[in-house]
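Why do we bother with a discrete structure alphabet at all? Because it lets us treat a fold like text: something you can write down, compare, and reason about line by line. To make this less abstract, here is a complete entry for YihY/virulence factor BrkB family protein. Read it the way you would read a sentence in a foreign language you are learning: slowly, and without expecting to understand everything at once.
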Amino acid sequence: MSDAPTSSDPAPTWRRVVGRTLGGAWDKDIFSHSAQAAFWQALSLPPLFLALLGSLGYVGDWFGNDTVRVVEESIVTFARQVFTPEVVDEIIAPTASSILTNGRADVVSVGFVIALWAGSSAIASLVDSITEAHGQKLVRHPVWQRIFSLLVYLLALVVAIVTLPVIALGPDLLPQVLPASWRGAATSLIGAFYYPGAALITVLVLTAMYRLALPHTLPWRRLLPGALLAMVVFIASATGLRVYIAVLTSTGYTYGALATPIAFLLFGFLLGLSIVLGAHLNNAVEEAWPARPEPRPRRSDRLRAMRTHPAMPPVADEPGPDLPVTAPAAHAARTTASDSTKEPR
């Protein structure tokens, strides 16, 4: 098999790719998988947020004396934009002060356990959707699938710790955290490469997720179309979601408070929808242009084949290869032949 298309006219092939992508996504219930991922995302973030806040009581002094105070003021200020003043003054502000001032081991431990369980469930739903799109859902053992999802979730947390502050600051505020001597050059570089760099990193992260999720993986270039589609679909849907939130919040606090959880769930749903749709595109491209087989099997595949089909010892009655006959061997053959022709006495 080769990477060449199976038809001389590329237009019908690409139409079949689009049809297979949409048909496969619909047949394998993309909306149900996306909603499941959104639910687990929504369930994992609040306990993770509480665990992080509870840990500030222990590690807040490591980052400066005013760290806890700044975080508390930011939480209360944001809450006043969403909730009524009575809710903020009577519930949110005292709770934030109690959690942030005194370290809460129970909140930290229980919060992280719930966050790991729910977050790994969100990753597991996405991994199941990706493997089902490629017809590999039953290849990996279910127990290992769950452990694998937990490891991917921990890796995603590490990546989020590094990237989310950069995303939150944006190209306007990011140069201000750098030393004064670097701000001039950094401002021009960040302004020129921030958005292209963010798009490139997003595509690479999505491609890595597609590659890690598949038991029988594909080359990196084969997973790029799905990653590009997932990024484009998510950016377009997130832009529409921002317009929706802006319209609702402009009407007053009541609709803004109601729209916040809806927007949060829609954000998780659209994220899962874009990732699963990209996986179906990768599978459709693979069906239209099958990848070349690897030039030689991997070491693990060779060992698995040796365990499954062990080498059989040679049979004594089978003739061996033609070899040159030496003098002692020829003499032994003549002696055996003469003994067999002698008549018994």
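What the structure line is telling us, in plain words: Residues 20-179+189-293 form one domain. The chain has one domain: 20-179+189-293.
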